[in-house]
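Throughout this chapter, every protein is written as a compact record of paired, labelled lines. An example of such a record is reproduced below:
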Amino acid sequence: MAFAKSNRMPVGALQCENTTMHLLKANDYVAQGIRSKMQQQGTLLINITSSAGSGKTSLMQETARRLKDKIKMAVLVGDLETERDAVRIREAGIPSLQIVTNGVCHLEAQMIQQAFGHIAVEGLDLLFIENVGNLVCPAAFDLGEDYRVTLLASTEGDDKPKKYPRMFLTSELMLVSKADLLPYLPFSVEAAVKDAREVNPEIEALTISSLNGEGMDAWCNWLLERIAAKKAETLAMPAQA
């Protein structure tokens, strides 16, 4: 004999709404405010994402060394603990502020907004956000960026675009990093790019090494072209009353 399940809630139980959806809606609202602020001042905002250890901070250091005398730039760095990455970037000659998330596995738009009170962003040509090392959670959170750039290190394996598709779906550029190690690893750049473009046909791809400089000129030119385009967009905006 089959018995129907009771639809009654047990005493003291609470049916919760989907709080994740509310959180993302609130995040998107703040992100739009950040995007408007960056548009009005003509600052290009780049969200750098990747797994932990794929070379984000090394990329920020080398990019700073190459561009700091050409443009005004800064970096916001997200990590669960310590200020080590921000210190490394400041040693490369540009302002950097560490956002300590205290265990949160991603940056959120409200964290970026709070950081604006502690680092000068007015007048910047380029602001990087170095996200927490994680290919899952950061993919869901818009930070008001113009572009999301995801690093895929040669040491990680070339299968990650299909294993973590949302990150590559929401990115405009994939950087295959640590290219200097490619001769020693079973990593196929062609396979990684193929998988990434099956997830996101519009994604661009560059192969880089912050250590030996491979691809760094192409990366810096990619940035400079988009900085110029952002400035042109801001200049074309109608004056506010």
Q: What stands out?
A: The longest helix spans residues 19-41. The chain has one domain: 42-235.
